[in-house]
Every structure is written in structure tokens, then in C-alpha cells.
Amino acid sequence: MFSFLLFVTSVNVQCAFEETEGALLMLEDMVETQELREKQLDHRFQLALYQEKRASELQDLKERLTEEHLRKIAEYDKQRESHLKERQAVFQEAFEEDLQRFKSQGALPRSKTSGTDKSTPSLEEIVLDEDSVDLESFLADQNQEDGGDIHKKTEVKDAKEVGDDNASTNSETTGKSNSIKVLSTNDDDVG
């Protein structure tokens, strides 16, 4: 019986050892899980601090850029205003001179526009010489396609008459349907 008792006790002790070993393994797992949770909380806290820091830096950057932009706008406005004042002064001076001339002479001098120069002819100086032979032949071709011979005879006759008159013009324009001639005028002639 003693051996039975010893066997039962050894079995109980062995079961207790196994239970204790299992409990120790569970405790180690719980400790590791707790440490992992603490590390996660620490990382989350560090991330929140970093995000706050970056948000603060971003806000500071926005404020600095806004101030710089407003300063540049103010500088630009000052430059623009001074430029406009200078321009206004020049125009006012020119106006005063024109007004004095008008008062003394009774008429304003002819002003020169800045967009035109002496080499560019005005519309009054341009004369178009129309060569209607090409137009008449085109219309004649159209009439043939349409079957209209009524207008063809008169148009061809008119084209021949114009063609004889413009023979010298055709040689000058080298096949172009229109030529532009500029009448030369002297500045003394313009009154």
C-alpha cells in the first residue's frame, strides 16, 4: 500500500507540475501580450506626438507663407501704384503741353500714334487692282457644271476686256489674283 500511495502521490505531483508548467506558460504569454500592448500604446503615443508636431510645423509654415505672400502683394501694389503715378504724371504733363499749344495756336498739332511707323502705309494709300480673269473662269466652270450658259457668254466677254486691260498688271503680280499698290505720299503733302 505504501507503494500505491507513493504512486498516487507521484502522479498527483506530476499532474501538479504539469498544471504549474501550463500555468507558467500562460503567464509568460500574458506577460508578452501585456508588454506588446504597452509597446503599442507607447508607439501610438509617440505617433500622436509626432502628428501634433508636424501639424504645428505645417500651421507655422502656412502662417509664414501667408505673411510672405501678403508682404509681396503689398510691395507689388506699391510698385504698381508708383508706376501708375509716374505714368499719370507723364500724361498730365503731355496734356498740359497740348493745352498750352491749343491756347496759343488755336489748334492741336497732329499727333503721331505709337503703333504706326512711316514705312507702314495707311488705308487711304492702298489701292487694290483686281484681276477678275481667274474669278470669271471659276464662275464659268461653275456655270458649266450647273448647266447655265446664259451668264457664261457675258462673263467671258467681260473677262477678255478686263484681261486685255490688266495684261501688264498680270505680269507684275506673277499669277496672283489681286495685287496691292501703295501710293507714296510725302509728309509735306499730308495736311
TrEMBL record:
Residues 1-15 form the signal peptide. The keyword Signal applies. The keyword Nucleus does not apply. Residues 111-122, 166-185 have a biased composition (Polar residues). Residues 102-123, 135-191 are annotated as: Disordered. Residues 148-163 have a biased composition (Basic and acidic residues). Keywords: Signal. This is Dysbindin protein. It comes from Orchesella cincta.
